[in-house]
Each structure stands twice: as C-alpha cells, then as structure tokens.
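Team,

Forwarding the record for the chain on the shared tracking sheet. I've put the sequence and predicted structure together so nobody has to dig through attachments.
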Amino acid sequence: MTNTVFKKTAVAVALVAAGIALGWGVSQWRIANSHASGAVPASAETAKTDRKVLYWYDPMVPTQKFDKPGKSPYMDMALVPKYADEDAQQGTGLNVSAQAVQALGLRTATVEQRDIGSDVDVLGTVQLNDRDVSIVQARSAGFVERVYARAPGDVVAAGAPLADLLLPEWVAAQREFLAVRALKDESLTAASRQRLSLLGMPAALVAQVERTGEPQGRYAVTFPQAGMVAELMVRQGMTVSAGASLVRVNGLASVWIEAAVPEAQSGPLQLGQYAQVRLAAFPGETLKARVVSILPEANRDTRTVRVRLELPNPTQRLKAGMSGQIVLAGRTQPALLVPSEAVIRTGKRALVYVVDGPGKYHPVQVQLGAEIDDRLVVQGGLTAGQQVVASAQFLIDSEASLRGIMPAQAQAQAQASSAQPPSEPGAVPAAAPAPKSYTVRGVVDEVTPTELTLTHEAVPELKWPGMTMPFKLASPELAKALKPEQQVRFTFQQQGKDFVITAVERVKP
C-alpha cells in the first residue's frame, strides 16, 4: 500500500515538472518568434510614431536637407527622415558597436607631445675652396726658357719656382735706368726707378740691378701661395705676351662641402651656423663645418637649395670629391604628434577621428605640419593625451559622411555660407552670381503644369548618373504640347533646393 502511494506521488510530481518545462519552452519560442518576425511592443511602436522629424534627406547626398517627404531630386529613391532623438543621441559624433569595432580591427593611438628638432640630414660633397685661388700672369712680353717639372694636380709650396722667362723689354728699361742713375740726379733716378716698378718688376729685382749695375733679363716666376696646381698654361719654348696667364693655383688650407637641401627644409638655415660632418673616408669621426653661403637660387628640377659649408684642412687630408653625411642642427621645440595613418586627407582639409568613449567617435579638422618618420606634426585641432583612431578610420569616415556628420569647423563654415548677412541702411546688395545651366537629353515620363518628370542621360558636371527624377518648370508654357515617351533636349538650373527647367525642345528619335 505504501509503495503504491509513493509511486503515484512520484508520477504526479513528474507530470507537474514536465508541464512547467513545456510551458517555459512554449513561451521562449513565442518570444523568439516575435523577434524574428519583427514584432515591436506597442509602447515602442507608439514611441516611434511620436518621434519628432527634423528634416528629410537623401542618404547619398546627406548634406542636402528637405522640409517634407517625397522623392529625392538626385536619385530615384524616397527621402529618409531625420529624427530629433537621433541628434540627441548622436550629437556631432558617431556610435560604433563593440562587435563592429572588433570586426573592423579598429586601433587607437594617443596624441603625444614631444620636443622635436628641425635637424636637416643631407648628403654633401667635398670641393675645393674657390675663394682661395691665385692666378699667375706674365708681367711683360717675352720667352719661356725653362719650366720646372709641374703638372695639374701637383701640390706646391709658396715660393716654389714655376718657370724662367726672358723679358727683352725689361732689359731695355733697366739699361735706361742705369744711364739715368749715372747722371747723379736724384729726382730723375727716382722717376726711372718708379718706371721699373710700373713695368711689373719686383722690388727685389730692381734692388739687384741697382746693386750690381747689370741688367737682369731673366726672371724666375714663383708660386704666390701653397696649394694645388689647378691649371697649367705655360710650356717651355713658348712666347708669352704681357698679361698672359701661366698657372692657376687653388689653396688647400680649407675646403668646401656643398649640399643640396630640400626646399621645404631650407627655411631655418642661417649663415654662420655650424653642422656636423661625417665623411665616408673617416668612419667614426665627426668634423665641424660652418655655413658660409646659401645660394640665392633653388634648383627647379630637384626643388633643392645649394648650401656651402667651410671646413679647415690643415693637414690636407680632405680631398675634393669625398662624400659624407651632413647634419645641420636646428632649434628644438615642443609639438603634438599623431600617426600618419590616423590622418584622412580630403584635398581641402585633414581630418582625424577622436575617441569620446567606448564606441564613440567624432571628426576633428586639424592643421598639419612636418612629417617625422611615420608621424605627423599637428599644429592645431588636438590636445595632448587625446585618443585618435589609427586604423579603419576610412570606414568610419564613410559612415559619418552618409549620416551627414561633419567637423565643427566645417559645420560653422557651412552655416556661415548659407546664412544671409543683414543689409545695412543704404548699402548696395552684392549681385548674386548667375546659376550655371546644364543641357542634356531625356525622355518625358510625366507632365504637370508645374513639374516635369524625365528619364535623362548622365550629367558629368554634377556627377549624376542617368536616372529618373522630377524637375520644376520655370513657366507652365514649357510643358505645353509635351506628352509622355517624347524625347526632348532640356536646359535646367539649380535654384535653391530645386532643379528648374528653363528651356525644353522636342527632338527626333
């Protein structure tokens, strides 16, 4: 008896449990089914119908707003409403779900403030100092009796002999001087001595003639300075005239290093500033040079400015043609840096997307400076410590464009351009520019006294594809005698928010 009662009780409890489970499962299925079918609670539906519409817009042209619903004048599609609560939730930013952030692989970076230097790092080439050049010329006509063993490129010392010249004109002048000197007239002797100097004779040669009483027709030409024989124009047996160049000598006490600095980095350069030079011939050694010249003309092909630096060369180990690295030090200054990949350049402005919070972003227009490695200097628009989107920002920017979200600066400019300034008393209003006209071909779809619906060809100037859209009529007379399916050529203008047909004519198929 007891076992029978126990079995009945157990069966009853099992039935009750099964009923509860079945009821819970049915309820869950109904909830899921309602969500799948798009059912909305009555309260939500009521809230949706009570939402305030701010304006209507075309999703493909989100910046153009309309006061009432209808068909888009740009595309063959209905206008979409913009609700007030969307602006309250969205503001000037964009919300992205956590799932979308993860799917896009979105990364962020911190706006850093760092001290940067305007150092200029360029390649340079060693050259001879063209300011340290001497040219030796014949002081009188004569003959070359001997040339000492010299060749271009030889390094010579100051006073080293170059050539022996026989100068007949000097012999005649010296004989005349000795004859005048024999007259014992000091004034005539002084005048004759001065004449010898004017003929180019060195004072030592004049003193020798006066001391020995014998004319000296041979003259040994010497190098006036130490350096390299850059050009040798005299050879044994030659006849030279007065003023003929015999040799050109380039000094080696200092050398130039010439570098081509990019035009964009040439602004801070100054005469007299110092630079570090590292030549390939002397690895691990740093030399110090000084800017002595910034040439006044930039290279039009390479967009560079030539800069000359002077470097002491007492041991003559620096050779013309050597190359090395030049670092022109600049001043250090603080700057804000963002990754280059975080900046979107539209051609008219540069944008970055700032992180407002988890999944919340808004565009900011920035002013850019120089690029340093993989970072850009930001001169305005951001502050240190802000988080910016460093990847997938182009997708976010596309979504923001579709929703009509613009940076605050762009919105202010748009409002300023659309607002009409109040006219002052007595002021003459400026004439508005005439609207541009466009002429295309199309087929009439529908005709009313005030509107003409056409399927027209593409308008490249407006970047319109071929489509069907309504046009306002400038005059009801334009619609007379027009019927559907007729082919026409029409001219239209944009007047405010409307596109208005100003002329239309039928054409043969």
